[in-house]
Amino acid sequence: xxxxxxxxxxxxxxxxxxxxxxxxxxxxxxxxxxxxxxxxxxxxxxxxxxxxxxxxxxxxxxxxxxxxxxxxxxxxxxxxxxxxxxxxxxxxxxxxxxxxxxxxxxxxxxxxxxxxxxxxxxxxxxxxxxxxxxxxxxxxxxxxxxxxxxxxxxxxxxxxxxxxxxxxxxxxxxxxxxxxxxxxxxxxxxxxxxxx
Length: 196
Ligand SMILES: Cc1cc2nc3c(=O)[nH]c(=O)nc-3n(C[C@H](O)[C@H](O)[C@H](O)COP(=O)(O)O)c2cc1C
Fold this sequence. Notes:
The chain is an alpha/beta fold.
């Protein structure tokens, strides 16, 4: 089995479209032999942040939070599907990630941003880069930026038309870059266990 990769998505909207990109990435990364899981913040349903995971006494965190902490600790790499609300990342995604800190450390993170319009959520993606870095992840330089998401991916997350072809062309480099950093960080964690 390849790398264990978690794909995070954080829109809570009834008519959300970013799930198409999340599905596309799960399928594409799995087709490369990885063990991939979608982490849909809406389905997990963590409350608005009160206590971080680490602030609960051991064994007393809510079950969904405990399960997710274990999945984050057990992952080799993360992909964040980041939509843009008023130039910022989606609150559902931010809320989920803020619950954890040390659990994220020493692993690579890749950002795939999107929007309904032509700017591809690039402003949110750019802001999100700094946030993930602050949380101890190695944020890779390759990004996927998907504008006009509904014209790029159909409801099943399948690429459509020339925007879809463009996405298919961009994906391998993004995945290769993530795989390189995944191997590099895994090797380094084994060679020199993280100090904390
Ligand atoms: C509250 C809100 C704010 C938005 N702000 C932006 C924005 O700043 N830039 C942009 O390109 N699109 C913006 N959009 C449009 C989104 O790109 C579009 O609705 C997209 O489908 C949202 O992702 P989702 O469907 O996965 O929730 C906004 C949408 C909402 C609901």
